[in-house]
Specification:
Blueprint: H1 8-38
C-alpha cells in the first residue's frame, strides 16, 4: 500500500500530508469524545 519515497521533496510532502490527516483525525476524535461526554457515556 505504501509507496517507497526516494526524494526529500516527496518525503516532505508525505509528512505534510500525514500531519494534515492526523490533524483531521484528531479533530474528529475530539468531536466524538465531546459527544460521548455530553451524552454521559464517559
Amino acid at each position: 500500500m505504501f509507496q517507497k519515497i526516494n526524494t526529500k521533496s516527496h518525503s516532505r510532502t508525505a509528512l505534510l500530508n500525514l500531519a494534515y490527516l492526523r490533524q483531521k483525525d484528531t479533530k474528529r476524535y475530539l468531536g466524538n469524545s465531546i459527544q460521548y461526554i455530553t451524552s454521559g457515556q464517559l
